[in-house]
Design goal:
The protein is an alpha/beta fold. Helix content is 33%, strand content 23%. The protein has helices at 2-9, 39-42, 52-59, 73-83, 95-100, 113-122, 167-177, 186-193, 201-208, 234-258, 277-281, 301-310, 331-341, 372-379, 397-400, 444-457, 478-488; strands at 11-16, 23-28, 31-37, 66-69, 108-110, 129-135, 142-150, 154-162, 209-211, 216-217, 266-270, 289-291, 320-325, 343-347, 349-352, 361-365, 389-393, 401-403, 413-417, 432-438, 461-466, 492-493. The chain has an eight-stranded mixed sheet. Strands 3-2-1-4-5 form a five-stranded mixed sheet, with helices on both faces. Helix 7 (167-177) packs antiparallel against helix 10, helix 8 packs across helix 10 (234-258) and helix 9 packs across helix 10 (234-258). The termini are far apart. 52% of the residues are buried.
Length: 494
Amino acid sequence: MMRRENILSKIIWGASALFHDAGLSVIKDGKIVFGAHAERYSGVKHDKHLNQKIIDEALTYGKPDVVAWYEKPWKKNIRKMISGEWHYVGFEGSPAKYMQQFGVTAPLKTFDHHYSHAAAGAFTNPKNMGTVVVLDAIGEFITCSVWEYDDRKGLKHLYNSKYPHSFGLLYSAFTKRCGLRPMDEEYITMGMAGWGKPIYKNRIKNDFIESYHPFVMKKNVHEGLGDYLPGADVMDIAASIQAVAEEFIVEYTKEAMAKTNYANNHLIYQGGVALNCVANSNIFGHADSVWIMPNPGDCGSSLGAALAEHGRRVKWSGPYIGTNIPNPYPVDAIITELNTNKIVGVASGRAEFGPRALGHRSLLADPRGPEIKDQVNAIKRRQKFRPFAPAILKEHVNEYFDICTDDSPYMQFVGVCKKPKEFPAIIHVDGTSRVQTVGKDDSTGFRQLLETWYEKTGCPILLNTSLNIRGEPMVNTREDADRFESKYGIKVCS
């Protein structure tokens, strides 16, 4: 009882840094009160370092009693020696000293990388038990792991695969082979797949994969693939590795659920691979429900580490836990701008914790115009083949999309649009859309905007993409919004 009271009264910070996508989270009085991405304060995309600005905002919730670090540095350094990366170590040997440079001197505890991922999912999920699967590139040694979660017993580790047997590294290696940045642009690989044919799927499996479960590879691809499949169309390469991903994720999660003690068919899924929304959609063929915390990668493990220290499930109130722009949601101003110019930015309320804009730091557009997709891609300096997501009133989703679930508030699943000719701006070349459903219990302001838009136009959908330019972090503050508006000529309402 004493342990529970002590933990509930503590201010716990969770930190992830020194690899990529640094983040900081705060639990206070047993509640998640803050979670943010370092890049949005520094302006450096995928920034691996924390900075004084994010530290100062976290301090507004009180000084930490303890800092939870998202991985075990000594284990990671051993793996780096084995894999020839020892020259990259630096501060990673002492996260306590790293935090001290920001004036943070609270005691620091470390947790295994995959345990932080698993805790991020298990302790935010809406159910009291389930199967937990973590798939990512690499932490210390573990690359794939399976756990059982029970409110009464906590998290129990069952089994894993270890470096160099990593599906995340394999997908990143193919991202590099497609001419993109690994550990960054995997989502573009996923988008490219719709333009190609998976003609190399079986060859990739035969060349690189020994088995799916346990996941065993034939080769270490950490340094890339070189000129694998020389002369092949990169769209076909992308389609092929994506096809492998979809098959692997289904088979791995299916087998994991079969090996746990739970028959409730509830899957809790974390790690960077969980951002592959096309593959996620296939999981519902064997899982009745799926929970993916909306920041499943390493930045989200800052929250996972804090929850690991907290040691129990908390009430998940949504992803809007970042920097606050406290004005009322500007529904009327957005509608006016949409009617006039078809495209508008919004920076209002608390920023999203996760890589996807969900209505608080968004670039919005009327999805019905045939020219809108190209216009928004031009504004964001993106490749023309890249698709955009629809945000739709939840009660209308089945009318417009054939989708595996009618509850997709975090853009984690795709559906086939039933009326593609009416909404060309939010349809990928393969006819799919990464759908965000907006229910009555989701963001009040964004919900009100969609309701008003529907009342005025008869359209329950808006194109929703992140308020940023390719290669830059999302807008965070009103000052960021002013700079965006001035530089790119797009009105940003607050």
